[in-house]
Amino acid sequence: QVQLVESGGGLVQPGGSLRLSCAASERIYNLYVMGWYRQAPGKERELVASITNSGMTRYAISLKGRITISRDNAKNTVYLQMNNLKPEDTAVYYCNAHTSTGLDFWGKGTLVTVSS
């Protein structure tokens, strides 16, 4: 059982930046893919970004250029840097770990609110 704890969410003004963190309870090097998803009110959960244990990244087209995902294997932590935030980025952001055996683990989420 992998436990994931997100942090770094909060209220930010349009155009601002946030860095989200996801701390894992085990070595993330052993986890095949780490990802960030988000779910806005009334909408389905969607992929924001993901990174494999070899460092390959994938980004949602609508967010590309404004976000960067990274991982620190020594700290068992994955980060999501978000810049030039817009009101439509308001959502609960979830960390996901996908193992090579097909298991998925989720954090409880962190709320990001973009508003003036």
Which helices and strands occur, and which strands form pairs?
Layout: E1 4-7, E2 10-12, E3 18-24, E4 33-39, E5 46-52, E6 57-59, E7 67-72, E8 77-82, E9 91-98, E10 104-106, E11 110-114
Parallel strand pairs: 2-11
Antiparallel strand pairs: 1-3, 3-8, 4-5, 4-9, 5-6, 7-8, 9-10, 9-11
Q: What key attributes describe this structure?
A:
116 residues, mainly beta, seven-stranded mixed sheet, four-stranded antiparallel sheet, 11 strands
Characterization of this structure:
- The chain is an all-beta fold and 116 residues long.
- A hairpin with a 4-residue loop joins strand 7 (67-72) and strand 8 (77-82).
- The termini are far apart.
- The chain has strands spanning 4-7, 10-12, 18-24, 33-39, 46-52, 57-59, 67-72, 77-82, 91-98, 104-106, 110-114.
- The strands form two sheets. Strands 2, 4, 5, 6, 9, 10 and 11 form a seven-stranded mixed beta sheet that branches.
Helix/strand class: mainly beta
What composes the largest sheet? 7 strands, mixed
Give the CA-CA distance, first to last residue. Answer: 39 Å
Average pLDDT number: 94
Quick gist of this model?
The protein is an all-beta fold and 116 residues long. The protein has no helices and eleven strands.
